[in-house]
Design a protein that fits this description.
By secondary structure, this protein is of the alpha/beta class. It has helices at residues 3-7, 34-52, 73-86, 102-112, 136-145, 170-181, 199-208, 225-229, 253-269; strands at residues 13-19, 56-60, 94-97, 116-119, 125-127, 130-132, 152-156, 162-164, 185-188, 213-216, 234-237. Belongs to the BtpA family.
Length: 277
């Protein structure tokens, strides 16, 4: 049994993304509609995801584009307000992802009671956002300083729109990341949100991290979830749950229910127990 059973309620878990609209300080924030509109759209997507039967939800500032690697205070404050207003309506385990700032993600988790965070914790990258560095030792020390040591850490080892500066294969990255950092999970991604995770890369990572949870982090759909979940321990799903399967759209409750009904049938057929039904 992995920690997924205790924290999320099932093996082969589906963590659904609740993508927040642009926030104050973001270039595309809608000042006329304001934060009230952002909260209401988040509420609408959250309800659609939960009614469709997802196992967990992860809130992220997905539309704070272009992303920062040193996120501003106003972004974290806005995300905390949204989650705070929705707290009484959240009935599944939830996590947070402040793109792309690991310490701010932990700050938000500590403030809201999130069970997990997903971030880029390790490595140095050439990215669309410039040279992207990390400091995992300081980040983990920060986690303990703020009392967030029980928050599960999902390490994204294939960051979107970025490439390791060192010439390292994914297998060695997975192996050394597990040895040096003891992550709760490794996330394997495609190039961008919605891009399918390469099953061969996914398998290579799982072969190196046999005792660590591995997630297919992008591009899991109704057409490929069985293939992906036959390798991975779970999946993070965002785009596939949206109207017409488009990243920029809101969540389509019918797509969510159809997807989750099939996933639950797959789990039942393969004897993966669920605590939440």
């Amino acid at each position: 049994m992995t920690w997924l059973k205790d924290v999320v309620g099932t093996e082969k878990a589906i963590i659904a993304m609740c993508h927040l609209l642009p926030l104050p300080g973001d270039p595309y924030f809608n000042k006329e509609k304001g934060m009230e509109y952002v909260v209401e759209m988040a509420r609408k997507d959250l309800q659609a995801l939960q009614e469709g039967g997802v196992d967990a939800v992860m809130f992220s500032n997905e539309f704070s584009m272009p992303y920062l690697t040193d996120v501003k205070t106003e972004t974290v404050a806005a995300m905390a307000r949204i989650i705070g207003e929705l707290m009484s309506e959240i009935n599944v385990p939830f996590g947070v992802n402040v793109l792309w700032d690991a310490q701010k993600s932990l700050d938000l988790a500590a403030a809201t009671g999130a069970k997990f965070v997903r971030e880029i914790f390790t490595g140095v990258y050439a990215s669309d956002f410039g040279t992207w560095n990390t400091n995992v030792g300081e980040t983990i020390r920060h986690q303990y300083r703020i009392g967030a040591e029980n928050v599960k850490l999902l390490f994204n080892i294939v960051p979107e729109a970025a490439k390791y500066l060192a010439d390292r294969d994914l297998e060695s990255i997975a192996k050394s990341t597990v040895f040096n950092n003891r992550p709760d999970a490794l996330c394997v991604s495609g190039l961008t949100a919605g891009a399918q995770t390469d099953k061969n890369l996914l398998r290579k990572v799982k072969n190196q991290a046999t005792e660590t949870v591995v997630f297919a982090n992008t591009g899991v759909t109704m057409n490929n979830f069985e293939e992906q979940l036959s390798i991975a321990d779970g999946a993070v799903v965002g785009t596939a749950f949206k109207y017409d399967g488009k990243f920029e759209n809101h969540v389509d409750p019918k797509r969510v229910k159809e997807f989750m009904d099939k996933v639950k049938a797959f789990r039942n057929e393969n004897c993966f127990d669920e605590l939440n039904g």
